Amino acid sequence: MQLSLILAFFCGVLGCVLVHGATTTVKPSPTPRPACNTLATCEDCVKHPQCIYCFVGDNAGVCNDYPTSHIIPRTKDCDLSQSRWGTCVVNYKALLIAMGSIAGVLLLSCSGCIVYCCCCRGPSGRQRRKWLREDEREATKKAERQMRQDQRKTERRARNDEIRRKYGLQGDDEGQYHELEEEN
User: Fold this and answer.
1) CA 115, 116, 122, 126 torsion: positive or negative?
2) What pTM was computed for the model?
3) pLDDT (tens digit, 9 = 90+) per residue, 123-149?
4) Cα(54)–Cα(159) distance, rounded to whole angstroms?
5) pLDDT tens for residues 81-115?
6) Residue environment code for 89-119, b if the CB has 16+ CB neighbours within 10 A, otherwise e
7) What does pLDDT average to over the chain?
8) How far from 58 is each of 18, 41, 78, 150, 160, CA to CA, in Å?
9) What average pLDDT does range 1-18 have in this prediction?
10) Quick check: 39 and 51 in contact, CB under 8 A?
11) In what order do the strands lie in the sheet with 61-65?
12) Distance, CA of 85 to CA of 89 (rounded, Å)
């Protein structure tokens, strides 16, 4: 019963916060983006990702909408070496070459790491079979050593027992400790 009261209290507080928050929050209206053809400089144009700047003459150019129907702008719209997108320093052609090179290097690095980890480092089927054969060889060698050791142990016991019988040291209390009596 007490748990239900606590739950009802928290639901009431949460409801008040939501209702109060919903009535007092005012969303700022987003600023409308300017049309690309109204932007004059390269710096103003490339700030907007939907615009592409094309140099036409000596430091003169025009800002156009990025052709969304194609991934890469066509040369009829603007030559790739004269177009700028994202930055005015690097032309679009160099940007494409650099991004392609970086993507290729990353792809080759990742695939090289995958090949190294899966094929070279990890135990392949052939490598596992080789390890199993080596383990079997080691196990048989260990069993042979243990068998030879047990055989030597029994031979040593037999020799010791024979020596004890020869000299009469073998008795009923063999191997037991007993107290020595002093003679006075």
Assistant:
1) positive
2) 0.45
3) 667 777 888 899 999 999 999 999 999
4) 105
5) 888 888 888 888 888 899 999 999 999 999 998 88
6) eebbeebeeeeeeeeeeeeeeeeeeeeeeee
7) 79
8) 59, 13, 15, 98, 111
9) 49
10) yes
11) 61-65, 51-55, 83-84
12) 9
User: Could you tell me the two tokens for 5?
Assistant: 């009261």
Backbone φ, ψ for residue 80 (5° rounding)? -65, -30
- Cα 145 from Cα 6, distance rounded (Å): 74
Length of the chain in terms of residues written: 184
Quickly tell me which residue has 């003169």 as its tokens. Answer: 60
Amino acid at 111: S
Report DSSP letters for the chain, one per residue. Answer: -HHHHHHHHHHHHHHHHHHHHHHH--PPPPPPPPPGGG--SHHHHHTSTTEEEEE-SSS-EEEEE--TTSSS--TTT--TTTEESS-SSS-HHHHHHHHHHHHHHHHHHHHHHHHIIIIIIS--HHHHHHHHHHHHHHHHHHHHHHHHHHHHHHHHHHHHHHHHHHHT---TTTT---PPPPP-
DSSP string for 119-150: IIIS--HHHHHHHHHHHHHHHHHHHHHHHHHH
Whether the per-residue pLDDT at 152 is higher than 80: the answer is: yes
